Amino acid sequence: MKQLIKLAWRNIWRKRKRSVIVLVSIAFAIIITISLRSLMLGNGDKMVEAGVKNVGYIQVHTADYWKDKSINDLLLDDDKLIDKINSIEGVTQIIPRLQNFSLAAGDKTSKASLVLGIDGDNENEFNKVKDRIVKGSFFTSKSKKVVIAEGLAKYLKLTVGDTLVLIGQGYQANVAAGKYPISGIVKIPNPQMNVMLVYMPLSLAQEYNSAFGMCSALMLNIKDKSQTNRISKELKSKLGSNYEIMTWDEMIPEILNGLKIDTTVFTLLSSCLFLIVGFGIIGTIIMMALERKKEFGMLQAIGLQKSQIQTVIFLESLMLGITGIIIGLSIAIPFMIFMYYHPIPLTGDGAKSFEAMGAEPIMQFGIKPKLWALMSFIVFCIMLIASLLPIQIINKQKVAEAI
Amino acid sequence: MNVIEIKNLRKIYNEKTVPVNAVNDVSLSFKAKEFTAIVGASGSGKTTLLNLIGGIDTPTSGNVFINGKNVSELSENKMTQFRRDNIGFVFQQYNLLPVLTAKENVEFIMELQKKPKEEREKRVTVLLTEIGLADKINERPAKLSGGQQQRVAVARALAHKPTFVIADEPTANLDSKSTADLLNIMEELNQKEGTTFIFSTHDQRVVDRAKRVIVFEDGKVISDTSK
Amino acid sequence: MTTKLAWRNIWRNKTRTTVFLLAAFFGFAMALFALNLMKSISQQRLDDAKNLQTSDLQIHKMGFQDDKDITLFIPNAENVIQKVKENANVDVVAKRISTNAVAASPENSIGCEIKGVEPTTEREISVVQDFLVEGSYLSTDMRMPILISKKTADKLKLKLKSKIIITLKNTQEEIVGGSFRVAGIFATPSTPFDENTVIVNYTDLQELGSISEPQEIAIKIKDPTKLIETQSGIQETLSAEYEVNNWKELLPELNAFDAFINMVGVLFTIIVILGLGFSLMNIMNMIVQERTHEIGMLRAIGQSKFKVFSMLLNEAGVLMMIGAVSGILFGYVLTLIASKVGVPISSGLDMLGIRPVMYPKLNPEIIIMVIVIAKILTVAIASIPAYRAMRIKPNY
């Protein structure tokens, strides 16, 4: 066997240029696919993270709230419920929210807006909402002031110190209406939200909606993201069917669906690339075998079994593949690690479409060992397939005809 | 004692279309230590005869006995193993593996036979000295001349001490100096090692050196003379 | 003659050529299919958005686009419409009232954009009626009819003929409300449109908002390739008070996505052809090596260096082009089949305005792009071995 390995390794380097091209094409395929996918996955992670900052890992609602987000489907924010949720291991924070749609009006214009009642300090601890302030200051929990999004402020031509008029329908068809001074303006990355969000202290929102002591959702922060499903399951069994428990992936399907497009594009591209590179490699391996028919005949004559010659061919293909994979990975991995720490900032239209998804406009690469393994495995399979035809050729070869 | 015994050997190509009797009812025997030339024009069937004797082709009918064993009955794998252990080959060209050095080429079969390293080393040194290439043991074939390559091939064929060596036109691509050198070496080794040599040729200078000359024409032996 | 020679030469090694051509064939076919599919997805998103939301061109009063202020209506709208209709490329002109409102039922309330339209002209310009799942288009026999989406209907728990309250700020800056009845429910492929839009009769909304003139004039044109010319033609006849926008300007995000898809397409093609280029490089190297002697002979009998160079380039070109043309033809057939059968796209993408089943169309510019990139890369890749061949000395 040692002898055959030596023979295979030396055979690879017989036609140096040819083998180098094969190695380069394998490395090329590995580097391109890994870079592309790492970029997609890196950005995907970033968007999911941004999405989770908005909705939390898990939300608890009253049954059937999420579908309609009706102001009539509210939760009683009582200690019993909080204690029950807190008793589950891994839950680190419970953040209540009360949200409702209203018409927001300035002096001249009006616009449908989302009035979000929050517990400012609690919320800030989870998603640093107070850091988004661009003008004025955030309200305190007892204040009667509101903070509005930058786009909405511009649209309504309002600024800090002006009064915002809100009118809508409150809890159980009560009229919700009020005039609130603006204490600050925040910039929301998601442009859709940026033109409609109004933050209000939770207690003020309860008063506005005539929903005292109630909230529409309890947003949960947890210790470890991978525990999401376990915690959600425990919550379901503990709280029963009067409550709706939703995990982050159920609440931000638009982000996850966007990532599906990425996956489709990547699958198409990588299968095209592997198909073509694969055929190139297969062609080369076949040529390597066909050129050496006489040599194989001689080897058989002097006493090598067909299986031994086939082993040599197989080893050649495998060694080429593994060398190519090693070269590809040894370029791709350090590159990925470097890019992970040095993301590329985006400008122009590209930046806009990132902001539309609520994410920072940077090209973020991810570090994905599973992807590395998968791409290497695909190349490995191609090499196995490549060695099949030459092995067949040897099977059919007659010694007397070959020499 | 007869090392090789062939009886009523026949090889017909294109049996179904235009039959060609490459070897037509040939019976021959070869004794140990014989140094035999098979002479014939190209197309006379001498290569087919050598292939049949060497077991790399199967006869249409008839049998080949080597050391009394009917090798025509062996399966392909068994035959391959039999060739490895009992027969040495020297071809016109493509004899050596281009990726192995002279030494590695010579010890190749012994390595396949899993002979111990010391034994191999000893044998290679003896043979390479014998063929006058002791200083080239670590060169690859591409760095050797045609004559030197054929000498290494002879060493390779003898390395594992086979019962006999088959050489198909070993000097066809060589100049007269190299031809003479190669024949000297073959003769010498034939004497020293006592290995039977059967080679085909159409070169009169080679024929002159043979101890036994078999003239082959249209698949039949037309004369068989020993000196 | 040179092509014939190249053709015969490439078949001297059948296995090698066959394997390469197979790679090229499938590679080009898949690339063409994938590119057409991606392009069609982005095109369909744009078309749906255009047909549902914007139509080809829109006129607003300067400044309306910034904050959709209800008071920024189009002065002398009838006059403007007359002027627009004089443009030869204009097909249909429709006026719309457009403002923000809150739609409420006893169950819930949502923010939305309300559009007041004239049913007869609107039906010619927008395709909403094609997506009605229940009821009928704004009918005259119902008082205060409204069209809402299935999503809105579910959120507000409304059925056909249910009452819905619309609250908005009128031109006198008072908050007013009116009750409408659901005449029809639509479900379009565009979730953003569905989530945001309710449609009522022009006159009803005019009355509710005390509005005399429309905020928006939508124009459908006859020849879509003359979009920009028509736009500037109309702008010239109007004063600077009016702003004419084409749909590309009105849907910047979708347009950015389309540009992104185009970029991905070029990148995709380059990567695929580069992948193929490695094989080509290998084959060219083998050819030069195998034929060193032959080329030397050709040089000896008087063939010029450049003839040798072009001979090899020709061979590479013929190889690549056979693969490209046959692959593109196959990709064309695949796309044709897909355009009849449909390609299921992973579900749930309707939020991005992507239909669950795509019927890809063939884009001729993709074929041209693929062939151009293939040609350039072939010449670049084959030049190196061809250059080496050129330097072979005459011998025999």
Automatic annotation (TrEMBL), chain B:
The ABC transporter domain, residue ranges: 4-227
Any Pfam family matching the protein: ABC_tran
Matching InterPro entries: AAA+_ATPase, ABC_transporter-like_ATP-bd, ABC_transporter-like_CS, ABC_transpr_LolD-like, MacB-like_ATP-bd, P-loop_NTPase
MF-aspect GO terms: ATP binding
PROSITE patterns registered for this protein in UniProt: ABC_TRANSPORTER_1 (PS00211), ABC_TRANSPORTER_2 (PS50893)
SUPFAM superfamilies membership: P-loop containing nucleoside triphosphate hydrolases (SSF52540)
Keywords: ATP-binding, Nucleotide-binding, Transport
Superkingdom of source: Bacteria
Chain segments annotated as coiled-coil in the UniProt record: none
Protein name, as recorded: ABC transporter ATP-binding protein
Native source organism of the sequence: Winogradskyella aquimaris
